[in-house]
Structures are given as structure tokens and as C-alpha cells.
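RECORD TYPE: inverse folding
INPUT: C-alpha cells
STRUCTURE:
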């Protein structure tokens, strides 16, 4: 239900961000990323749109040399 509304669970958010689930939990606890709770089961939830916005901002803040190295590794 919540995924249809644009929310991700910890494991899904970790995959999107390219980090471990424990890192996502820590970032949420430290308020580095917005964290929500499911009203019924109290699971941690993250809005996909917000996480994608954070990824975009991080990508834009990288220097051109770092972006180029990342693209070369991806090939």
C-alpha cells in the first residue's frame, strides 16, 4: 500500500541510495534524510521523491573529475 504512494522501506531505500540498510537507518536517526513511520506497523519509510532529490543534489555537487571517474568505472 505505502509503496504505491511513493514510499520505500529501508531495504528498498538502501538499494536506491547504494548504501547498506544500516546506513539508511543511521541517516534517518541523525535526520540526514527524512524518515516516516507506517501508522500500523511502525516500519521506517522514506519518500522516493525525496531520496531521488538527494541523489540528484549529490551528483551535482561532485566535481567533474569525480563524475568522470565514476562513469569510467561503470563501463
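DESIGNED SEQUENCE:
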Amino acid at each position: 500500500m505505502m509503496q504505491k504512494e511513493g514510499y520505500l522501506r529501508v531495504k528498498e531505500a538502501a538499494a536506491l541510495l547504494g548504501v547498506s540498510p544500516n546506513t539508511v537507518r543511521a541517516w534517518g536517526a541523525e535526520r540526514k534524510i527524512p524518515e516516516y513511520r507506517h501508522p500500523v506497523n511502525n516500519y521506517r519509510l522514506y519518500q522516493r521523491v525525496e531520496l531521488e532529490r538527494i541523489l540528484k543534489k549529490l551528483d551535482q555537487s561532485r566535481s567533474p573529475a569525480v563524475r568522470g571517474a565514476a562513469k569510467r568505472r561503470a563501463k
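NOTES: The CA atoms of residues 5 and 53 lie 17 Å apart.
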